[in-house]
Structures are given as C-alpha cells and as structure tokens.
Amino acid sequence: MRRVRAVTVDFWGTLITQPPQADDRYRERRLADFQTILRRVGLRVSSAALAQGYQHSARELESVWALNRDLPPLRHVASILEGARAGLSARVPRAVVDELVEAYARPALLVPPPADTEAGKGLRALAARGIRLAVVSNTMRTPGRALRRMLDHHGLLAPFAHLTFSDEVGVRKPAAEIFHLALDALGVAPGESVHVGDDALLDVHGARRAGMRAVQVVASGKPGSGEQAPDVVIADLGELPRAIAALESAA
Questions:
Q1: Residues contacting 224, CB < 8 A, separation 6+
Q2: What 8-state DSSP symbol labels residue 113?
Q3: How far apart are CA 70 and CA 244, in angstroms?
Q4: Domain segments of the chain: what residues?
Q5: If we measure between CA atoms, which residue out of 76, 64, 58 comes closest to residue 145?
Q6: CATH class assigned to 22-110
Q7: Which tens digits make up the pLDDT trace of 148-169?
Q8: Which residues contact 122 (CB under 8 A, 6 or more apart)?
Q9: Are strands 213-217 and 162-165 parallel, antiparallel or unpaired?
Q10: Which fold has domain 6-18+114-250?
C-alpha cells in the first residue's frame, strides 16, 4: 500500500460548485463601486471609461495567464485605472487605491456562491486520518484573501493546513510550480500526494506534471482522456475518502 500523506484541492468548480467564469458576474458591481470611490476624491470617471479600463485589464491578464503566471489585485486595479484614463492611477492616493482593491475583491462575498455540500464531510474524514490538506487554485479576478473568507463562510477553511492562490504566488495551474509550492509548505513529496479538481487540463494534467496523482470531480460531462485522464473520478467531495483509499490500495 502506498500511503497518501497530502491532498490538494481546487477552489472554483470543486470546493465552490460554480466555475471560474462566474467571477465575470461581479464586473458591474466592481465598476459602480470604483466610480463612487473616485468621485468622492474629486475624480470623475465615466462608466464607459471604466468599462474600457476593465477590458484593458482583461487583455493584460489574459496575456499573463497564457504564460501560467499571475498578478496581484493591486496590479488589476492599476490596469483598470490606466485603461480608463492615461495617468489616472498616479493621481489616486494610496489610501484610495487600497479602498479600490477592497471594492474589487468584495463583490463575491456579498452573496457567496454555493459550495459542495459534501465537502466538509469528505475533508474532515481525510484530516482525521492524518492527511495534510491544502488548497491549490487559480484566482481569476477575486483574490485569494476573499476566497479565504468565502471558505470560512461555508465552514470549509479549518481543515486546510495551507492555501496556495495564484495571485499571491504569481504562478498558475497547470504549471507544476504552484503544486510544488503547496507541497513544500506541507512538507510532503509529490509521489505521496493527490490533487483534486474539476478541470482536466489545469487540475489533472497539471498535477501529473508535478508528479502527483489526480482525482477529477465530474458532476456532469465527461472526465479527461489521454494525458488528461484522472486516476479516479468522483461526483462530489464526499466521495473523496473512498477515492483516496482506492488509490492507496491500487498502488
């Protein structure tokens, strides 16, 4: 039997059942809050200009994400401001920039998206076996500090010994580096670890590149195939203890 000593878990589409694209729904709230904050310090920026800035930041993010890298939320905000009006970011006092960063992160917390209702049971069962748990996730526009609060809201924060979010470490899945950063923090080797996620490329293929085994959460649709084929498929995180036991027995 090959014991599993650590399990890393994806956020969007796994712990939280909505896919990462759901982050797009917060755009209007972000821009409305930006306009209010800027107006309060005498900077009038139209809704159209801010929308243009949001698109400018999207292009920058997409170019960085294509390299499996990531940027902190402060850079997201600066890119929106510069895209809205050249030189605007330099005119905004640092305290106001901090307020804008908070407004950028906040919308997902106002009505938190739903979590996997079986996640708590599955994670607690693994932790009770002495398995070390970590989150490894790309963050999209909502930063890791907000995602921590979302996990806490759903009662899912406590089981995790470590959380690795792409905006905080500067690297994104499927790069092996982000998995290794989490495993280094846990003090566990890749061969003794399993990653769990919904995406065949980011989670399954990424974990394999990092030397880990992979469990894919497939609530609907089909699991990955070929190089993206998982070791085990589950429907929800409540099945995770069974999946880990099966992996240990098979090994």
A1: 200, 201, 204, 205, 216, 230
A2: P
A3: 31
A4: 6-18+114-250, 22-110
A5: 76
A6: mainly alpha
A7: 999 999 999 999 999 999 999 9
A8: 236, 237, 238, 239, 240, 241
A9: unpaired
A10: Rossmann fold (3.40.50)
